[in-house]
Structures are given as structure tokens and as C-alpha cells.
Amino acid sequence: MKAPFIGRALSILMMLGMVIWWGVRITSGKPAEPKGAFPAPTVDEQLAAKKGQETAVFAGGCFWGMQGVFQHVKGVTRATSGYSGGNVENPYYELVSSGDTGHAESVQVEYDPAQITYGKLLMIFFSVAHDPTQKDRQGPDVGTQYRSAIFYKSAEQQRIAEAYIAQINAAHVYERPIATQVAAYSAFYAAEDYHQDYLTKHPDNPYIQYNDLPKLTRLRETFPEMYR
Fold this sequence. Notes:
Elements: H1 2-27, E1 54-60, H2 63-70, E2 76-84, H3 93-97, E3 104-111, H4 118-129, E4 137-138, E5 141-142, E6 148-152, H5 155-170, E7 181-184, E8 188-190, H6 198-201, H7 206-222
Helix pairs in contact: 2-4, 2-7
């Protein structure tokens, strides 16, 4: 009679172990919270006099949430999930996930400079889109492919990004210093179709509900004038 009982007990323990593992997987790495109102960048470009299109590339953990956030920002005309910052051409998800290509899961943000500035996009990036104090991870996702990074496409974008990081650190907005990498843009590769608009298409996914939907709530509550 002992053998069946022991087998059943082991099965229960294994199930409990899986539940605990997934709980840690989903809830670990709680993001840092900024202190008080998030400051606007003191160094920024002016709004353009007429409608146009500019591009910014950001990385901040899983691209599902990053894309979802910027799709709800006024002035953003398109946000695309993809890969940037690596040394392999035409990367794909499984290859990037190995952490060996140097790529980060990224979002290419196309925006109208007559409606929103690069600095205001950075404000969203640093305050609600991800936790910029975590190095080579975001919450449950660990690895260089989940690093925080800004891939600047011009000297002006580099100047604004570096000045804003210095401003945030000097103001001690977070308890930890900013870990965001500021690197020159080299290439952006769009991710597979099933990754695009993932938050919009799968709002009931537990990962999305716990890690990403709260970002949209923070965006709407913290910056209602920029939320759409």
C-alpha cells in the first residue's frame, strides 16, 4: 500500500513545485517605482512646425508590453516589435532568445514630431514602459536580450537621451541608478507576425495581465494628456 501512496505524494509535490516555480516566474523582479511626479526632460527638441515622421528605437524587456504602451501614446503613428543591437543579420526569435546574438527585444517607434518630441517619448520609456534600473532583465525575463537600451539614430537623439539619464540620476527619481544602455543604432529587424500587437490580441494571457496591462493603467493615469 505504501508504493501508490508515495507515488501520489510525489506527484502532488511535483505539481506544487511547478505552481511555485510559475509564481516566481511571473512575479519576480518587481519593478522599481519612481518617487513623486516624473520630471519632464530639461533637454529636448522643439515640436516641429509641420507634420512629419521620425523614428526612435527602444528596448526594455519583452517587446509585447513595450509595443502596447507606445501604441497608446498620442503622436505615435506606428510601433513595431523586433530586434536591435546585435551582430547577426536577419535574426529570429529562437536565436535571439539564446542570448548569443547581442540583440535586444526592441520596439521601433514611428512618431509625428509635430505632436510629440523625442524627449517626451523618453519620459514614457523611463517612467511607465519598463523599469530602467534593472540590468539585463525585466521582471521574470532574464538575459541581455531583455536589457534596457536606447538605440539613437542621430547625434541629437544621443544628446537628449544622455542628458535625460543624467537628470533622472541627479534627481534620484529611482532608488537605484539608471541601467539603460545608450548605443548607436545599427539595424532593426521586425519580429515574427505572431509577436506583433500581442498585447492587443491576447489581453487574457496571464503574462500580459500581470506584467503589461498595469503599464497601460500607469500611462493613462500618469500622463492622461498623452494617452489615446
